[in-house]
Amino acid sequence: MQKGAAALSDAELLAIFLRTGVVGKSAVDLARELLIRFGNLTQLFAASEADFCAIHGMGQAKFVQLQAVLEMSRRALNEEMQRGDALNSPRAVRDYLQLLLGSRPQEVFVVLFLDTQHRVIATEELFHGTLSQTSVYPREVVKRALARNAAAVILAHNHPSGVAEPSQDDQYLTQALKQALELVDVRVLDHFIMAGGRMHSFAETGLL
């Protein structure tokens, strides 16, 4: 209460969520065990119900509570994006995309559709792939942009490999999408790649 939640370690934050420990282990000890078992918070959030419940002291109720916390965070960030200019609230956009894609085991390609004031109209997961790649079709992205009456888009996908740097294929795809959307007067504001807790921005690195 004196220093705020940001002053706590990952284990201490997780301990507050867990509330109680088990025989012989405090809530903080149990939280540390979870972080060691899964590696970090991102991987913990991505854990399957079976893997999560395999830890002594965890169960279905705790798993459901954790998923509810994550979904509330996504919805709160989505509401923040919808209230204002996405370019003027980059933290909300980045945090939302990180929560949405950061822990996905397969590649997922997401498009944020924005209006003329750069407010988020909708977020759609358009393509799903394997561990290493996905097939993205510019025609489908254009169709969805027109259906949403979007003036601009933000593209995003994840790299389950953990490498955030864009591949040559990522760069080719971005340019192909940019050119296709320009034909219908829709701007591509950015393309984000999420991987291993890191995020790469095409706009910030001059690749857009």
Helices and strands, with pairings:
Elements: H1 10-18, H2 27-38, H3 41-46, H4 49-53, H5 60-83, H6 90-101, E1 108-114, E2 120-128, H7 138-147, E3 152-158, H8 168-182, E4 187-195, E5 198-201
Parallel strand pairs: 3-4
Antiparallel strand pairs: 1-2, 1-3, 4-5
Helix pairs in contact: 1-2, 5-6, 7-8
Strand proportion, as a percent range, falls in 15-25%
Structural class by helix and strand composition: alpha+beta
The largest beta-sheet arranges its strands as 2-1-3-4-5
Principal-axis shape: elongated
Estimated radius of gyration: 19 Å
Question: Got a strand count?
Answer: 5
Q: Biggest sheet, in brief?
A: 5 strands, mixed
Q: Helix segment count?
A: 8
The SSE order reads HHHHHHEEHEHEE
N-to-C CA distance: 44 Å
Average pLDDT, rounded to a whole number, is: 86
Binned, the helix content reads 40-55%
Low-confidence stretches: none
Q: Could you walk me through the main structural features you see in this protein, from its secondary elements to its overall organization?
A:
- The chain has 208 residues and is an alpha+beta fold.
- The chain has a five-stranded mixed β-sheet, sandwiched between helices.
- The mean pLDDT is 86.
- Helix content is 45%, strand content 17%.
List the main descriptive attributes of the protein structure presented here.
208 residues; alpha+beta; 8 helices
Care to give the gist of this entry?
The chain has helices spanning 10-18, 27-38, 41-46, 49-53, 60-83, 90-101, 138-147, 168-182; strands at 108-114, 120-128, 152-158, 187-195, 198-201.
